[in-house]
Amino acid sequence: MFSKFLNLDQEKQDRIINAAIKEFALKGYDNASTNEIVKEAGISKGLLFHYFGNKKQMFLFLFDHCCKIIADEFYIKINLQEKDLFNRIRGAILIKTELLNQYPNLFKFIEEAYLDESSEIKIEIEKKVKELNDINFGKIYDGIDFSKFRSDMDIKKVLKIITSTFEKLGEEEMNKVKLSPSHQIDYERIQVEIEEYFEILMKAFYK
Q1: According to the model, what pLDDT value does residue 172 have?
Q2: How many whole angstroms separate alpha carbon 92 and alpha carbon 77?
Q3: Are the beta carbons of 40 and 22 closer than 8 angstroms?
């Protein structure tokens, strides 16, 4: 669908992407102006829609693009040889913090997309987030040493509880951010809170 855009030289692609990410992250989907995007990118409005079709398709493309960059970098860095589940999750959190510092604009756009209440894109973004969560939790759990877990526990149900716990934490944090004027996520506080949950979950499920 986006082959015309992807056939552009990299510098022009980056210019358009950066302009669009900036506009959407600052103003949200409904209030973002394609006029401002083309002005910042130095292209015509006709060309923008030639590449993406419409505003909605451009936004969804950007969401996929940002998530792919973060995911590619994440899976280069993550140690999937670590067999302890909670150590692996700790490693994942540290890497996410590194990537946040490396790609602040991408994270800002993704966070705003998560929070956006526009009826035009909300369902699609929620579906994409669900798919991403399923894929990422699957990879994080792959190759884990389950012999550390209590033998009287159903591992599938244990993983479901752990997954639900962190998904719920994520939802609660995003709801807090929605109410915050700055829409800023306090990653350091979240990391401390996650460690507290680790301690409880390890006591409950490890031998």
Answers
A1: 82
A2: 9
A3: yes
